[in-house]
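Customer escalation, tier 2.

The customer says the design service returned an amino acid string that "doesn't look like it belongs to this structure." They asked us to rerun it and document both sides in this ticket. The original structure tokens are below, unchanged.
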């Protein structure tokens, strides 16, 4: 059993759900360009798709109906992100009052339904005007972000008690942005990520981390009384061949880059030594100032958001960046979900590792969920049967609650995602929702996993009888 204060929720991101890409004075974002101008999904899936309409979540009539579904599900929190370009069309400077008013109304509507808003400031959509100025590679990005965050704090800080500065630095900067870069250049495969990408993105990641810490400091200095944290994509790394020393070494380096880099930054105010040496070699511009580590150390987050989908099996591969590969391998007999092998036991181990190595911080699971291929998701009459997703969610919640029993300071669980939505470069072909969305009509149909999650919430967790 869990206490009544435990948060049960669902998570989403602005570009994946809002649509309304030019409504009410919104500026353009990098993703508006990636999808409309560079036709980025076409390079990956063969289908030209955009988030111009997405699941129409900007529309109030639509989102009120969606909130009614949230109530039916029984969740007590909803995590969503803000579109920076809706609030500041040029990234800095003029504030778009209509954009601010939209988010104030949405937050009020959630609160009126008894659902606590958990607001992510940045989930990968950067105003285009800032992208044109070098984006996150430019050190000025720290100031741009602090300015945007302070406008949000003034607009929403009185009614939002949980903010997340950044979502998943590693996945956006080291996986998705390099793919977009390949697509823009139009040479080779979008998947051909190189050391040169890593070299550049290390600088950007440093700026994200400093911007996050400065923002946490700004919120505290302004007397903000809620909690502010960061959401990381965490993947325990496993040598694909545990008897091979090259794979063991590769898995250790992958762990330093994917997991420990940000965890050490957030909770220890420094970067792992392997990260410093590897990236200094790749890029002399990667030279974090000593003062930056002071900023990180002085502004630790109130909580850690854990986004967990799968562990990463790592193999040595000299052709891959940093000499290892991790995403296309699944030695387990059970089929992998879209985001990797289904191994809930690694969620428990991960949470217990954070308890032991990072001082047992407050944790919310800010994303966990699964997509499988079309055979695992069948429309039967008026309902969608998705047994693998239901099973995935139940087993991961069970693993998380086991970690909680073992002393992990776990305070909530948010499923990714309530609705099928725009899955970045994979477009609309990869469904993660508990609710099926017909993207032509916007019709919503709860899946069997919706019922499964509702039952888990109603009984306050997973009991062994399940
Ligand atoms: C991201 C989401 C994404 C999900 C499923 C996470 O990496 O934060 O935006 O849709 O995984 O792939």
């Amino acid at each position: 059993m869990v206490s009544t204060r435990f948060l049960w929720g669902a998570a989403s991101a602005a570009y994946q759900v809002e649509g309304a890409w030019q409504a009410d004075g919104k500026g353009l974002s990098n993703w508006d360009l990636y999808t409309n101008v560079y036709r980025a999904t076409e390079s990956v899936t063969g289908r030209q798709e955009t988030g111009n309409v997405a699941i129409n979540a900007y529309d109030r009539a639509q989102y009120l109906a969606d909130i009614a579904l949230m109530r039916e599900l029984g969740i007590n929190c909803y995590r969503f992100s803000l579109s920076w370009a809706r609030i500041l069309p040029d990234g800095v400077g003029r504030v778009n009052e209509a954009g601010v008013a939209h988010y104030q109304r949405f937050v009020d509507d959630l609160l009126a339904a008894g659902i606590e808003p958990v607001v992510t400031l940045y989930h990968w959509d950067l105003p285009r005007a800032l992208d044109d100025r070098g984006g996150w590679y430019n050190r000025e990005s720290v100031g741009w972000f602090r300015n945007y965050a302070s406008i949000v704090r003034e607009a929403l800080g009185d009614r939002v008690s949980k903010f997340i500065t950044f979502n998943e630095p590693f996945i956006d900067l080291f996986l998705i942005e390099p793919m977009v870069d390949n697509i823009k250049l139009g040479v080779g495969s979008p998947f051909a990520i190189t050391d040169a990408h890593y070299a550049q993105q290390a600088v950007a990641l440093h700026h994200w981390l400093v911007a996050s810490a400065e923002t946490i400091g700004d919120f505290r200095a302004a007397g903000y009384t809620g909690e502010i944290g960061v959401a990381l994509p965490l993947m325990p790394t496993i040598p694909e061949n545990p008897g091979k020393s090259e794979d063991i070494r590769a898995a250790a380096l992958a762990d330093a880059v994917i997991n420990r880099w940000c965890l050490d930054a957030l909770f220890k105010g420094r970067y792992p030594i392997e990260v410093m040496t590897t990236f200094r070699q790749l890029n002399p511009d990667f030279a974090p100032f000593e003062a930056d580590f002071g900023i990180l150390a002085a502004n630790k987050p109130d909580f850690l958001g854990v986004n967990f989908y799968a562990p990463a099996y790592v193999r040595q591969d000299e052709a891959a960046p940093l000499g290892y590969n991790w995403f296309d391998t699944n030695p387990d007999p059970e089929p992998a979900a879209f985001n990797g092998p289904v191994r809930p036991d690694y969620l428990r181990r991960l949470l217990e590792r954070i308890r032991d190595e990072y001082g047992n911080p407050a944790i919310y699971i800010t994303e966990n969920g699964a997509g499988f291929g079309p055979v695992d998701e069948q429309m039967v009459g008026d309902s969608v049967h998705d047994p693998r997703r239901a099973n995935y969610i139940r087993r991961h919640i069970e693993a998380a609650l086991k970690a909680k029993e073992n002393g992990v300071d776990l305070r909530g669980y948010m499923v990714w995602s309530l609705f099928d939505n725009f899955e970045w470069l994979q477009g609309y072909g990869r469904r993660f929702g508990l609710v099926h969305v017909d993207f032509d009509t916007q019709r919503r149909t709860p899946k069997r996993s919706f019922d499964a999650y509702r039952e888990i919430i109603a009984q306050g967790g997973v009991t062994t009888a399940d």
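Tier 2 assessment: The sequence is consistent with the input. Residues 13, 16, 167-168, 171, 233, 307, 339, 367, 416, 423, 432 surround beta-D-glucopyranose (CB under 6 Å). The first helix runs from residue 14 to 17. Sent an explanation to the customer and offered a walkthrough call.
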